[in-house]
Amino acid sequence: MSDDQMETAILRALELVPAANTALNDLDHRFDSRERWRVHEFCGRLDAGKIFEDRDIYDLEDLLAPIQAEIELGWMTHWVHDENHAAGGWSETILLPAAAELEAKTRPLSLLRDALVLVRNLRRTEDVLIKMLEQRHR
């Protein structure tokens, strides 16, 4: 792993912070009072650029979980009739408009989570590599 990979991953995560902050503020009404406190605390860490610990990934996943569960409930499968189709039609699965809108609002948060996971994985890769090199030179 090169330093460039880590720098690029960190930069990508930091570039996602403004959109993630906006998304959290837009979704604030969906959280109860206890969760709102966690949202505001997480936004404070975002603003300070203190988002590169494992707990930040877990906090973000915890905040996203109930919203993602709601989005999953928005999938609907229906039959599309087509007399020219060999089977008479086909099954189509779509995301209902309200769920699609919610998914779009949470997308910056999912992208930030993915970027933070990449930074964590690069950091872990570096740690493993250092240990392996130390063992080889003993």
Keywords:
single chain, 10% strand
Sheet of most strands = 2 strands, antiparallel
Structural class call reads: mainly alpha
**Fraction of residues in helix:** over 70%
Strand neighbour order, sheet with most strands: 1-2
Number of self-contained structural domains: 1
Distance between the termini: 22 Å
Pattern of helices and strands? HHHEEH
- The tally of strands reads 2
What's the Cα radius of gyration?
21 Å
Assembly status? single chain
The shape is flat
Spans of at least 5 consecutive residues whose pLDDT stays below 50 are: none
Helix count from the secondary structure assignment: 4
Summed over residues and divided by their number, the pLDDT gives a mean of: 93
Report on the architecture of this protein.
- By secondary structure, the protein is mainly α.
- Helix content is 72%, strand content 10%.
- It has a two-stranded antiparallel ribbon.
- Strand 1 and strand 2 form a beta hairpin.
- Helix 1 (3-27) runs antiparallel to helix 4 (97-136) and helix 3 (54-72) runs antiparallel to helix 4.
- The longest helix is centred in the C-terminal third of the chain and has 40 residues, at 97-136.
- The radius of gyration is 21 Å and the shape is flat.
- The mean pLDDT is 93.
